[in-house]
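Researcher: Structure for this, please.
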Amino acid sequence: MASGPEEAAAGTVLVCGALGTVGRAMVEHFDTLPGWRVVGLSRRSPDFPTGAEFRAVDLRDRAACEVGLSDLRRVTHIVYAAVYEKADVASGWRDPDHAETNLAMLRNAVETAEACSPGLRHVTLLQGTKAYGAHHGPFKTPAKEREPRYWGPNFYHDQEDWLSQRAAGAGWSWTALRPQVVFGVAIGSNMNALACVAAYAALSKELGMPLRFPGGEPRIQEATDARLLAHAAAWAGRTPAAGGEAFNITNGDCYVWHNLWPRVAEVFEMPMEQPFPCSLRRIMADKGPVWDTMVARHGLRPYRLEQIVPSWQFADFIFGYGQRPNPAVVSTVKARQSGFQECMDTEDMLVELLRQFRRERIVP
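Model: Predicted structure, token format:
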């Protein structure tokens, strides 16, 4: 990305949810841009080298937010990538208290930062295809930002409405970014497709099994590289025309899991056999001790399996286990017409990120 406009817009960016799949990519990208101070909010400490400042703040706790952010006087941009997920992840998306908690977290972060930083200019809100009802079933193909809403509860809609109302006359603007399945290098995220693929492949190899796709029938999907999403956030924060708008952000191509699986086998140097649909939520329930043995035997970083993949239910969801093979495609025309032109080859992305997972000794 060109440095000129970003230098002109440089300031302090507050990344909420800074160690998630999206948040880590945001921290790493803004940390490379000239003139930016990066402050990350997370209840955990960073497990990667970074020049960003990290603060442990629980966004559900208003008092903790006020204490933890009260000295931040020059926040100019907020990237809100935090999310509260229930233990039963997919089912929780339809619970009213799930929406209420996520709205409260956003309000706590923005209102506290706004009170301390009168120079706030922009808030980027991360959403996804649940904005189109993806958690309820099939949605219109391709989904466009102008689609009418579905019945709630839906915290994406609640957060967007609140931001719009709050920004009116406040001197700052907002943009909502809607990625598809997000891939990135991060630990502890409930919704990290890359971690699901890597851990499943590594366990299959450890147990002497070939790699078999565990999901449902072939279906067309899209992916979003977390690094691409970070570029989109930087673009939105410096582009006046992006204010008050929502944009679908994807890599720009489509994929079918069955066609990507040979590349996964290639990365892990293992044979591949025919798909075997099965619930990873069920078969991974007792694999923690196997993972602990792998950590010791291969000299991996000392993460437990549940830290790498907190929700195998999410894996079942993205792989389409027990679902109809309905396509999941959104239109990115609006973003391209508005000036965001970047793209990424999904197959190349998957191979590159899996290799990074191996280089960082997260998986063998």
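Researcher: Any notable elements?
Model: Residues 1-9 have pLDDT under 50 and may be disordered. The longest strand covers residues 173-179.
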